[in-house]
Amino acid sequence: MKEVYDFLKESGTYYLATIDEGKPRVRPFGTANVFEGKIYFQTGKAKNVSKQLKANPNIEICAMDSGKWIRISAVAVEDDRIEARESMLNAYPALQTMYQANDGNMQVFYLKDAVATISSFPTTPRVIQF
Q1: What's the pTM?
Q2: Beta bridge partners of residue 28, listed in sequence order
Q3: Where do the domains of the chain lie, and which CATH numbers do they carry?
Q4: What does the DSSP assignment read for 44-91?
């Protein structure tokens, strides 16, 4: 799992795909945090991605860094504990200008049943499950 987290952090921006009424929706994300041994990402309840995750929590993430790319299939599980939200805010202080841990809008999700594949053209893809 650490290798997957490190890849997301080093890439800076990754793309998260959801399903919206049977159609794919992809948008850039930049938050990746480890809390209690799980990889978390963050969004706001007012955003469409939040509604999509509630309707269908199956996601894919894709990122590229230094000639390698990663694809992660997972189930996004909301963690509604304030401690999880505070951990994200501590990891990303810039979020504090938009969110508060108890504002009723901030959401954090962790990756469950994740399968990550790291690929590049000259090497055989590596699969990591966590």
Answers
A1: 0.95
A2: 15
A3: 2-129 (2.30.110.10)
A4: ETTSHHHHHHHH--EEEEEEEETTEEEEEEEEEEE---HHHHHHHHHH
Q: CB–CB of 3/60 below 8 Å?
A: no
Q: What's the DSSP call for residue 2?
A: H
pLDDT given for residue 122 in this prediction: 86
Per-residue H/E/C for 6-18: HHHHHHCCEEEEE
- Residues 49 and 43: their CA atoms lie apart, in Å, by 8
Cβ atoms 109, 78 nearer than 8 A = yes
How many Å apart are CA 28 and CA 11, to the nearest integer?
A: 12
Written as one letter, the residue type at 85 is R
- Scan for tokens 């309707």, then name that residue: 55
Each residue's pLDDT tens digit, 103-130: 999 999 999 999 999 999 989 999 999 9
